[in-house]
Design goal:
Blueprint lengths: L1 E4 L5 E6 L2 E6 L4 H11 L2 H8 L3 H8 L7 H11 L6 H5 L13
Helix pairs in contact: 2-3
């Protein structure tokens, strides 16, 4: 699997065979923690928000974008204050880039 950065967007692409998946460059660890704190499991949260477990997994792994409606519903279900929404949905990942072999 080859990872490379797309220059015009802050996204990563994972290429496997002829398929290409976009991995968004956001860190959802804080969101995962809040989900566990409030709902216990991602499956329970997926049911509450009205999406499949697979769809939620794709979103939390950065393979699918969150819609405004989904963010609004998640914020309500998780009681996230408006001034903290960016911490849960828009925190950029920090990557360690190895320069070995260069």
């Amino acid at each position: 699997m080859v990872l490379y950065k797309q220059l015009r967007k802050t996204q990563l692409y994972k290429k496997k065979g002829d398929e290409e998946q976009v991995a968004l460059n956001y860190d959802y660890r804080k969101l995962r923690g809040k989900i566990k704190e409030i709902f216990g499991t991602q499956d329970s949260f997926a049911d509450a928000i009205g999406m499949s477990k697979a769809t939620l997994s794709y979103k939390l792994n950065g393979l699918s974008e969150w819609s405004q409606e989904e963010i609004d519903k998640a914020v309500e279900l998780l009681s996230i204050p408006a001034q903290e929404i960016h911490l849960y949905f828009f925190t950029k990942k920090v990557e360690n880039i190895s320069t070995e072999g260069d």
